[in-house]
Design goal:
By secondary structure, the chain is an all-alpha fold. The chain has one domain (about 85-360). The protein contains 15 helices and no strands.
């Protein structure tokens, strides 16, 4: 059998082409993920800058103004400082748990963004159980906090980790019951279907008006899940130094810092999706149907409009959360648990029963 040189060259060029196609395919899969991570990073930087400016305005003082125009680069400067700062390890602590804890908290919250629709067909993974996936993944974050407190071999850190776990368990149940009520109204657990079910009647079709009690409970529970004032008991400086973060420094402390803002952003996004009709405008499409075809017909332009509407609603609730932090005093731990178990849990359960009854009567 004789193989000519030209045939060998053709075979080699074909194999190179196939390998290039595989590489391009892998890169094309990574592009949406990297785009989402880049957008989330920019969003966190904006939130940090907004919190400093809003808190400065509330306290009648000057906020960041030297690092870049209006101080917009201050968050980047702080992140760079934490990145190059020395990491200290507790000499008698569990180094594995101490190192893994921040990563678990950060990654569990980051994965939650995969089921968030920012616009029409602008979602990383449209799953049939999208909202429950968010609840399941976000419930892993307190495990990382508990591991961090235990691995530090510090009684203050360990007590802060225990408080974080107790607080998360107390407020995840009312939050889950509120999500169940929304799922019953929408007949779906998909985040995209929940948004679509609200768009028919525009502003008056929002779940905010159909579930006002659930909206208030969800908002309070999401603040407690994010450990924001008045619910930041796991890291109350007056009692516990810095809670589970006491022994951390450098990039590990930075992961906790970023994770708290990631959790705040994802909670505000879910408030927008579950109660404020996501990317849709408040105009009912039964009257002006042409406006609702813009997302499908205009491609990039319609997607951009949807992202803008989603972020506008989200940052409105971020403003409420930031203002709440710098306005209300901190609760005690017993008041925190009493609010969750004795008030929010019965109210959310009653709201779920009323929603179930109304759905059964409407059949």
């Amino acid at each position: 059998m004789i193989i000519y040189t030209t045939e060998v060259q053709d075979i080699n060029s074909f194999s190179r082409l196939e390998s290039l196609k595989e590489v391009y395919g892998i890169l094309w899969v990574l592009v949406p993920i990297l785009t989402l991570v880049l957008g989330i990073t920019i969003g966190v930087l904006v939130i940090v800058w907004l919190e400093r400016e809003i808190s400065a305005g509330i306290q009648q003082r000057i906020g960041p103004e030297y690092a870049g125009p209006l101080g917009v680069l201050q968050a980047i400067a702080d992140g760079t400082k934490l990145l190059f700062k020395e990491n200290f390890l507790p000499s008698r602590g569990n180094i594995r748990l101490f190192s893994i804890g921040p990563s678990i908290s950060f990654i569990s919250i980051l994965v939650s963004y995969s089921v968030i629709p920012f616009g029409y067909n602008f979602i990383l993974a449209d799953l049939n159980i999208g909202v429950f996936l968010w609840i399941a993944i976000s419930s892993i974050a307190p495990v990382g906090l508990l591991m961090s407190g235990y691995g530090s071999n510090n009684k203050y850190s360990f007590l802060g980790g225990l408080r974080a776990a107790a607080q998360s368990i107390s407020y995840e149940i009312p939050l889950t019951l509120c999500v169940l009520s929304i799922s019953l109204l929408s007949n779906s657990l998909s985040t995209v279907d929940i948004v679509d079910s609200q768009s028919k009647y525009g502003f008056w079709g929002w779940n905010l008006w159909r579930q006002p009690i659930g909206f208030i409970v969800f908002l309070i529970s999401s603040l407690a899940e994010c450990e924001r004032l008045p619910f930041d008991l796991p890291e109350a400086e007056e009692e516990l130094v810095a809670g589970y973060q006491t022994e951390y420094s450098g990039i590990r402390f930075g992961l906790f810092y970023v994770a708290s803002y990631l959790n705040l952003l994802v909670s505000s996004l879910f408030v927008t999706i579950l109660y404020l009709d996501g990317w849709n405008t408040p105009t009912p499409y039964i009257f002006v149907s042409e406006l609702f075809e813009i997302n499908k017909a205009c491609g990039v332009f319609g997607t951009t409009i949807g992202i803008f509407i989603t972020l506008a609603k989200t940052y409105f609730f971020l403003f409420i959360s930031i203002t709440t932090r710098w306005t209300l005093p901190r609760l005690r731990m017993d008041q925190l648990l009493n609010l969750g178990w004795k008030f929010l849990l019965p109210i959310s359960l009653g709201n779920l029963l009323l929603t179930t009854s109304s759905q059964l009567l409407s059949l």
